[in-house]
Write a structure and sequence with these properties.
Layout lengths: L2 H16 L6 H4 L5 E8 L3 E2 L3 H11 L4 E4 L6 E2 L4 E8 H31 L6 E3 L9 H10 L13 E3 L1 H8 L6 H15 L6 E5 L2 H10 L3 E5 L3 H14 L4 E5 L7 H5 L5 E3 L2 H4 L6 E7 L9 H8 L3
Parallel strand pairs: 6-11, 7-8, 8-9, 9-10, 10-11
Antiparallel strand pairs: 1-5, 1-12, 2-4, 3-5
Helix pairs in contact: 1-3, 1-4, 3-4, 4-5, 6-7, 7-8, 8-9
């Protein structure tokens, strides 16, 4: 992930929650109070976003010590310690909810992704995400997909060419005599504009559209909302035509039907639900006042102690 971009997102999230200040903590918690505690899973799943949680605490107060107990992508059981935090109580309380929000959201995505990956085990197929992400959180949500064993589709409109039906409608209005003519014209225009490493993917909803995409020279075909039988037929048509065309299945993919889709021989299955419908992983911060000597030393303090200062 882009570290500076993640820091910006964390800062915005903290600002959103804190506003002009924490009315409760500033009144009740003594400024000199110290705290320590653990971030704990309340349900089983795959973890993601622990380093982001650490940033939430440290961006608010650099004196906070955050120790990650498990790596992102690890599968954890209920009541598993994910991280330990210690330091000034006020800043810890102020960053708590934002930190937990990131962990529960990203871990939920990683957990759901891992379920889809497990469901297609044994088939040479990739589970992909989509652009159906929370606005401004795409970089983090796509990271969570990777933590769950999935793969990223386009990050945005800028790093891949995907010609969809709505694009083709405008080619048809410019004089293309038929759908095939529109597809050929669109693919040709895309190839002229594409950079060397850009592949051209075309959406197809019918077998005729699959053939049109093949004839137009598409590098990849998105098989959209096809039933299992039609998907299998589309795969057979493409494999007989020419090598090297990547086939992606999409539309109405669920944990119940994803294995059947994988059995058709497609190369990838894109699942919007990974990011738009993932339930959160329940996590909590178990915090307590730090006893004398219980607070973890910061790296600076530990170094001074080692040097005899």
């Amino acid at each position: 992930m882009n570290f500076l971009e993640v820091c910006r997102l964390v800062d915005e999230a903290l600002s959103e929650d804190l506003g002009a200040g924490d009315l409760t903590t500033d009144v009740i918690v003594p400024p000199a109070a110290m705290a320590c505690g653990e971030i704990v899973s309340r349900s089983a799943g795959v973890v993601a976003g622990i380093p982001v949680a650490g940033l939430c605490f440290r961006r608010l107060d650099s004196r906070i010590d955050f120790q990650q107990a498990v790596e992102d992508g690890a599968r954890v059981s209920r009541n598993h310690i994910l991280a330990r935090v210690s330091g000034p109580a006020g800043p810890i309380l102020k960053a708590e909810r934002v930190a937990l929000n990131f962990v529960q959201r990203l871990s939920g995505i990683a957990t759901l992704t891992s379920r889809f990956v497990a469901a297609v085990e044994g088939y040479p197929v990739r589970i992909l995400d989509t652009r159906k992400t929370t606005p401004c959180l795409r970089i983090l949500e796509k990271y969570a997909v990777r933590a769950g064993g999935g793969f990223n589709h386009r990050l945005g409109l800028y790093d891949g060419i995907l010609i969809k039906d709505n694009h083709l409608k405008f080619r048809r209005t410019e004089g293309a005599a038929c759908s095939a003519g529109a597809v050929r014209a669109a693919v040709s225009a895309a190839k002229r504009a594409a950079k060397h490493l850009h592949k051209i993917e075309v959406e197809a909803e019918t077998l005729d559209e699959v053939k049109e995409a093949i004839d137009a020279g598409a590098d990849a075909i998105l098989l959209d909302n096809m039933d299992i039988e039609t998907l299998a037929d589309a795969v057979e048509i493409v494999r007989r035509s020419r090598k090297g065309i990547m086939l992606e299945a999409s539309g109405n993919v669920s944990i119940k039907n994803v294995r059947k889709i994988a059995s058709t021989g497609v190369d990838a299955i894109s699942v919007g639900a990974l990011t738009h419908s993932a339930p959160v992983l329940d996590v909590a911060l178990e915090l307590r006042p730090a006893k004398e000597g219980e607070r973890r030393k910061t790296k600076g303090e530990s170094k001074k102690e080692q040097n005899g200062e």
